[in-house]
Design goal:
The chain has 8 helices and 15 strands. It has 295 residues and is an alpha/beta fold. Strands 3-2-1-4-5-6-7 form a 7-stranded mixed sheet, sandwiched between helices. Strands 9-8-12-13-14-15 form a 6-stranded parallel sheet, with helices on both faces. A two-stranded antiparallel ribbon has the order 10-11. The structure holds ribose-5-phosphate (R5P). Ribose-5-phosphate binds next to strand 12 and helix 6.
């Protein structure tokens, strides 16, 4: 008889992934029951017996603010009803991009989000957090915070679905180097990293700084996040001028704000593929195995 020592609780945004993680890590799965009162307040209940170690699975998207509150309430409740250790798997960690006071008086949201989680969790596990000006999770988290990466699973997907002799990998900006270049190198694909200038949250300009032999090739654009989609859309537009065979987009975190998915297909992407850090129809790369290993 297997004695289960872990409870995996799926919160509102990540139930499907939570079930899969529980199966793969030999943990018991519990669904948290969540409702909203007419005034918008959250009601949360953890039903069932919890084990010593509780893992809460919750992506901070969509609706990052209520997702964060659900996570905090669930963590505190789990402790109060008997958990000895409460960890959270937050596949998409929101607020990481506001990592500096760009203008006087601005809130450094990454720091404040971490402050809230530091005060209710014993451990955090996340996937490819947007580390840019904050270089390491240690800079903002006091609790042990583990960064997992989707790169090996994305590399496997590309290797299985594309041929390196007629496909190229592109990173739309310098920050995507850590995904695009690493993935391409690990499977022997040619890669180019472009330059991006951002003029606001919805306006970017892409500069092709390295030309490859694009004509007739499959081009695979890889980035961590697709939010407004404009980084990918502008990259697709630049690439289309170079007459490739087809353009594919792959991301770790499919936020797809403001119909970004549909706009990206309309701009000319043949297929948009994502990892299941945020539930979406485009989820073709399953990270549950990578995550379950950490539990
Ligand atoms: C930022 O530099 C990230 O790596 C992504 O490129 C960015 O978050 C994508 O945002 P959007 O889809 O809004 O252009």
């Amino acid at each position: 008889m297997v004695i289960l020592l872990k409870t995996v609780i799926g919160l509102g945004n990540s139930e499907k992934l939570a079930k899969d993680i529980a199966r793969k890590s030999n943990a018991e799965f519990i669904k948290a029951s969540l409702q909203k009162f007419p005034d918008g307040e959250i009601y949360l209940r953890i039903k069932g017996k919890i084990r010593k170690h509780v893992y809460l699975i919750q992506s901070l998207n969509p609706e990052p603010n209520s997702a964060l509150i659900e996570l905090i309430f669930a963590a505190k409740t789990a402790k109060e009803i008997g958990a000895r250790r409460v960890s959270a798997v937050v596949p998409y960690l929101a607020y990481m991009r506001q990592d500096r006071r760009f203008r006087k008086g601005e809130c450094i949201s990454a720091k404040q989000m971490a402050f809230l989680l530091n005060n209710c969790l014993d451990r955090l596990i996340t996937v490819d957090p947007h580390l840019h000006r904050i270089k390491s999770l240690k800079q903002i988290f006091k609790i042990p915070a583990k960064k997992l990466s989707a790169t090996s699973e994305i590399a496997k997907y590309i290797k299985k679905n594309f041929n390196k002799n007629n496909s190229l990998v592109v990173g739309p900006d310098i920050e995507s180097y850590q995904w695009a270049k690493r993935i391409a190198d690990s499977i022997g694909f040619n890669c180019a990293i472009f330059l991006k200038k951002r003029f606001g949250s919805r306006k970017v300009k892409i500069k092709v700084v390295k030309e490859l032999d694009w004509k007739g090739k499959n081009v695979i654009i890889v980035d961590d996040i697709i939010s407004s989609g404009n980084t990918m859309i502008e990259t697709v537009r630049e690439l289309k001028k170079r007459k490739p065979r087809a353009i594919y987009c792959i991301c770790v975190h499919p936020i797809f704000a403001e119909r970004a998915y549909e706009r990206l297909l309309k701009a000319g992407a043949k297929r948009v593929v994502s990892c299941n850090t945020i539930e979406h129809n485009s989820n073709k790369i399953n990270l549950s195995r990578v995550i379950a290993k950490e539990l």
